[in-house]
Amino acid sequence: MNLDTMYFIVIDDSKLDCFIAEKVIQNTGRSESVRSFAGASEALEYMKALPQDRKTVILVDIQMPLMNGFEFLDAFKNNIPEEKQSNFVINLLSSSINESDQNRAKAYPFVNQFLNKPLSKGALENMLSAMA
Amino acid sequence: MEKQEKIKVLYIDDEPHNLVGLKATFRMDYNILTANSADEGRALLEKHPDIKVILCDQRMPGKTGVQFFEEITHVFPHPVRMLLTGYTDIESVVNAINRGHVYRYITKPWTEADIRSAIEEGYKYYVTSTMLALRNEELQKAYDELDKFAYSITHDMRGPIVSSLGAIEIVQNSNDLNEVKEVAGMMEKSLQSMDALIQNMHEYYTIKRGELTIVDIRFDELIDDFKEVFSVTAKMGNIDFEINLQQEGVFRSDELTLKIIVTNLLSNAFKYQRSNAVSKFVKLDVNATPERATVIVRDNGIGIEEAYVNDIFSMFFRATSQNTGSGFGLYNVKDALRKLNGNIQVHSKPGEGTEFRVEIPGK
Question: What is the set of domains in chain B, with CATH numbers?
């Protein structure tokens, strides 16, 4: 099992959900750093400026004002240079129980997993070990 | 059925004396427009979208009546079509019905009674079919709204619950009292937003389904209520709440609907403040006469980006990630104003503040 630490970004308009995700991430012991963003466009700006070869795990909520999760995925595809896209492991993290959301997520081949809220340590660890 | 206005009828015939004859016979009863050719008829249809019945001669040079009807099927689907003809061969009848979607077939020479009953029947058909189309459209709208509603409600109601469950899990594994308190504070906000959502839903339903109860509005009493409701928020947020009331005479309206409007505007004004601003304020101005009430809610909060101003009244739209709005409040305000025949204007500058100006006519 690969126990390298990684960089994490959480994008969620709910402060509480960001806090929970941060805690759960830290509890896995796999976090180099966690950054939270209340808005997807701010996160995207930050991601653009990141160093070329930094592996970063993204957890993004679906229902957010201004730019929702799917709009974020579109913006990611169109605005992040292709050679940089593979640095990001993008996961949706939502309380949505709508099949339409899960099906819609499948249409994005670069989406790694659809995680359900509340985020649990087990689910996150499974996702991380499947990655390696 | 509305009968005040004369039914507008278009009559197309290549023989001028036919046009004049029919127009003269019915000029007291119907508003008859006449055209010499199919093309002229089409031009009149474009100019008069309220034409309800079309009478058209079959035998015309250039285009036949059936060809004309066939041509306008998709462009002008609503007017009821009737074909006038001296020939009664079965093939032309079949064509008229199948291709021209003709409602009635009238043989020449016509009698006054023929035409009159055809127009009356045709008009009734027009009214029922357009009403049906309108109802269908409304129904479709209601269904679309329900879909959106169901989707957002499951998400917005489930959100705070799963957040709280996640928070409980963290608290259970934490020995840090400060952290526990911090999480409890966030859980409180999260549950409050769910409570607000449920209240908004109740308001939504009240506005959509409730009947208006028109009473004399005592703005001084209403304002006392607002003071009480918002005094804690004002104090906690260090926000100055200033109220001006001018009421002359009796203003009559529906109190509950009025309350929903003002409460939502005030609650937004208090909610979307700039946390680092020095002299935060919310101002409520009410000016009421028997004819109308003008309510102005002003704040020096975060303001609304210009690009979003037109969307703020849409259901579930939120123009900021700051704070936990349900995306429901202003939708309800707009809906409530629609019910009271009122209107609302917004002036806002990002970083400076927002002013909502509401006008409601007295009943």
Answer: 7-110 (3.40.50.2300), 212-363 (3.30.565.10)
pLDDT of residue B284: 97
Cα separations (Å) of B243 from B177, B222, B329? Answer: 42, 12, 22
pLDDT recorded at residue B37: 93
pLDDT at B195 over 50: yes
Complex ipTM:
0.83
B225-234, B269-278, B350-359, range with greatest mean pLDDT: B350-359
Condensed to tens digits (0 to 9), the pLDDT of residues B128-156 reads: 998 898 899 889 988 888 887 887 777 77
Tokens of A126: 């499974």
B166/A97 touch (CB, cutoff 8 Å), yes or no: no
Give yes or no for residue B2 having a pLDDT over 50.
no
Q: Which residues of chain A, if any, have pLDDT below 70?
A: 1-3, 132
Hey, CA dihedral for B65, B66, B72, B76, is it positive or negative? Answer: positive
Q: Which residues of A touch B (CB under 8 A)?
A: 13-17, 19-20, 23-24, 27, 38-39, 63-66, 94-98, 116-120
Backbone angles phi, psi at B117, to 5 degrees: -65, -35
- Overall residue count recorded for chain B in this entry: 363
Spatial contact of B190 and B160, defined as CB atoms under 8 Å apart:
yes
Using the beta-carbon criterion (under 8 Å), do B154 and A20 form an inter-chain contact?
no
What confidence tier does B199 reach under pLDDT thresholds 50, 70, 90? confident
| Chain-chain contact of A118 with B162 (C-beta, under 8 angstroms) | yes
- Burial tier of B83 (Cβ tally within 10 Å: 0-12, 13-18, 19+): buried
Neighbours of B76 (CB within 10 A): 17
- Which of B100, B92, B86 is CA-nearest to residue B14? B86
Instruction: Say which residue the tokens 């099927």 belong to.
Output: B73
Alpha-carbon distance A78 to A89, whole Å? 16
At residue A68, φ and ψ (nearest 5 deg) are: -85, 180
CATH architecture of the domain A6-131 equals 3-Layer(aba) Sandwich (3.40)
Region for B353 from its dihedrals, namely left if φ exceeds 0, alpha if ψ lies in -120 to 50, beta otherwise: left
Domain locations in chain A as residue ranges: 6-131
